[in-house]
Amino acid sequence: MTVQRYVLTPQMRQYDDFDDRAQVRYLPYLMYFHRANYHSEVLNTDRLGFRISHGVDESASTGGRIPDRPVRLLVGSSIVFGVGATNDHATLASRLWSRHAPSVPWLNFGGRSYNSLQEVLLLLLHRELLPEIEEIVLLTGFNNLVLTGLPPRMQGDHGAFFYCGEYLDQTEELLRRRREQKKGRAKRSHKTDPPAPTPDQDSPATTADPERLIAQAAAWTCRDLDNWCRLAGGARVSFVLQPVATWVRDRAAPQEQALFDEYDDMARLGAFQDLRGVITTPEVGRRYAEVLRAACAKRSMPFVDLNPVLADATKPDQWLYVDRAHLTDEGSDIVARLLADRLSLT
């Protein structure tokens, strides 16, 4: 069977290997982070799992070589990490540093599958490694919206995170065993399933009100925007709503459509697959941008919705995406140029 994912975007085979769930690094507070010291022709990480970014004639990363001068941080989830890029030089941070805003080094502060709270924690846990931070660009927003659709039992007090079902199942099993031990029961030799949650606790939000999902995602985002403002010191913090394929344009380029159709047939997208019809419509993207724009205005924070900006800057048949959330090399270069222009970066 020919897999278009590997025919049209052969680099994705390397990302699939990198994202092997059997190799996940579970970390305190963050829950998980990238594989450390991963080396290949497509992507490379340092001793902490940060992806290496490249300027014209130098490279840097948080857990590797650090420039001896102020830096800029590009913060976000997998679009910032650079899923889809054919090599480290093609990520957004590298394109900014090497081509579109090269006056100050850029560090790749992307955390694959991270929500906005994990993005903040990533800085808290590694701030002592960094020099002065001149600029922080938050290119994010979509994952928070996806996570609002997970079952209520997964939301907790601070919002859901990706793979939280595994965490909850394991902790529930641990609690079950301890309750049995406390009652003096003999330890069972086989695992029994935890009690099934009630339907209202375990039902995804496939029929949920989009306005409710937007409000919840915006609330989480605003909480963490305030945290960024407190942590920034003298650095300017800007929020950029990441471009999602179906928010950018109604019709995909031919290569994109082939990949999207294959992904749908394979049904490997988890929560995104379930929520696609709810959160990826252009109307939801525009409404979400309106709410976040107002939130940033209250905080005197620069805001850019890249979706209409990217649509205006490209042709309808231009191949921008390897899937609905991740960019091709050309897409990354265009987005980096638009970021530099809209945020007046040099």
Number of domains: 1
Order of helices and strands: HHEEEEEHHEHEHHHHEHHHHEHH
How does CATH name the architecture? 3-Layer(aba) Sandwich
Task: Assign an overall shape.
Answer: globular
User: Could you give the order of strands across the largest sheet?
Assistant: 6-5-7-8-9
CATH first level: Alpha Beta
User: Regions with pLDDT < 50 over 5+ consecutive residues?
Assistant: 196-201
For this structure, the CATH topology is Rossmann fold
Alpha-carbon distance between the two ends: 47 Å
| Helix-strand makeup class | alpha/beta
**Name given to the CATH homologous superfamily:** SGNH hydrolase
Topology of this structure?
Layout: H1 4-8, H2 12-18, E1 25-27, E2 31-33, E3 53-54, E4 59-60, E5 71-76, H3 78-81, H4 92-100, E6 106-110, H5 116-126, E7 133-140, H6 142-147, H7 164-182, H8 199-202, H9 210-231, E8 236-241, H10 245-248, H11 254-266, H12 271-279, H13 282-298, E9 303-305, H14 306-313, H15 329-342
Parallel strand pairs: 5-6, 5-7, 7-8, 8-9
Antiparallel strand pairs: 1-2, 3-4
Helix pairs in contact: 4-15, 5-9, 9-13, 14-15
InterPro entries: SGNH_hydro_sf
Biased composition (Basic residues): 179-190
Region (Disordered): 179-207
